[in-house]
Amino acid sequence: MEKELPSAYIPLRDNLNGAIESLRETLSIVNDTTDTIDITAGEINTAAQDLAHRTEQQAVSVEKTAAAVEQITATVTSTAARVSEANAFVFSCQNITEQFGVMINRATAAMSEIERSSEAISKITNVMSNIAIQTNLLALNTGVEAARAGEAGSGFRVLAQEIRDLANRAGNASKEVKELVETSRGQVLSGVSIMEEAGHAITTIISSVADIGDHLKAIAQAASEQATALQEVNNAVSTIDQGTRQNAAMVEETSTASSGMAQQARQLKGLLNEFTLV
User: Fold this and answer.
1) What pLDDT digit, counting tens, does each position of 119-172 carry?
2) Beta carbons within 8 Å of 112's beta carbon, 6+ residues apart
3) Fewer beta carbons within 10 angstroms: which end of the chain, N or C?
4) Mean pLDDT of 73-91
5) Vertex 189: Cα angle to 187 and 192 (nearest 5)
6) Mean per-residue pLDDT for 64-90?
C-alpha cells in the first residue's frame, strides 16, 4: 500500500507492507524450496525405480545362482557318496587280492616241496638203478658158477635167471620212474617260475590297489570338504537372496514414498502459484 493515508493509519500501513514483504520473501523461499523438492523427488523417484528394477534383476540372478549352487551341492554330495562306495569296493578288492597272494605263496611253497620231493625220488631211483645193476651182475656170476657146478647147479641157474629178469625189470622200472620224475620236475620248475611271476604280479596289483584306495580316500575327503563348503555357500546365497528380496521390497516402498512426495510437492507448488510474488 503506497497511497497517502491519515497519519493515524500510517503505522498500520507500514506494518502491513512489512508483513506482506516478509510473506512474499517467505513464499518465494517456499516456492524455490518446492521447486528443489519437486526436482529432487523426481530424481529420487527415477533412481528408486531404476534401483527397484535392478534389484529385481539381481533377485532373479541370485535365485538362479542359489538353484545352481544347490544343484552343484547335490551333485558333489552324490559324488562323495559314490566315491565312498568305490573306496569300499577297492578295499574289498584289496582284501581279495591279498588273500589270493597268500594262496599263491602257499602254492609256491607247495611247488618247492614237490621239487624237493622230486629230487629225493630221483636220488632213490638212482640208488634202485645201481642196485638193479649190481643184482644183475650177481645173478650173472651166480649163473656162471651154476654152469660150472653142472647138474648140481641147475636149480641155481634157474634162480639166477629169475633174479636177472627181476633185476632187469627193476632197472627198466627205475629208468621209467626216473624219466617221469625228470619230466615232473621240469613241469614243477616251470610251475614254480609261473607262480613266482604270478606272486610278483599279485604284489604289484596289491600295491596298485592300495594306491588307488589312498587316492580314493583323498578324493572322498576332498569331495566331502567341497560338499561342506558348497553347503555354506548355499546358505550364504540363500541369505543374500532373502536380503535382496527384502531390499527389493524396501526399494519398492521407497519408490512409492518418493512418488508420493513428488506429487505432494507439485500440489504445494500449485497452491503457491496462486500467490502473486512479484
Assistant:
1) 777 777 777 777 777 777 777 777 776 677 666 666 666 767 777 777 777 777
2) 192
3) C
4) 77
5) 110
6) 78
Task: Give the whole-angstrom CA distance, residue 138 versus residue 275.
Answer: 163
- Tell me the C-alpha distance between 155 and 143, whole Å: 10
pLDDT at 95: 82
Q: Cell for 276?
A: 502473486
What is the domain extent for residue 56?
A: 10-273
pLDDT for 245? 76
Considering its fold, how many domains does the chain have in total? 1
In the structure grid, which three cell numbers stand for residue 103, read together?
594262496
- Mark 24-45 as b/e (b = at least 16 C-beta within 10 Å): eeeeeebbeebeebbeebbebb
Place of cell 514414498: 257
Over residues 255-266, the pLDDT tens digits come to 777 777 777 777
Q: Distance (Å, rounded) from C-alpha 55 to C-alpha 163?
A: 119
Q: Which three cell numbers mark 226?
A: 567341497
Is residue 247 a contact partner of residue 55, using CB atoms and an 8 Å limit? Answer: yes
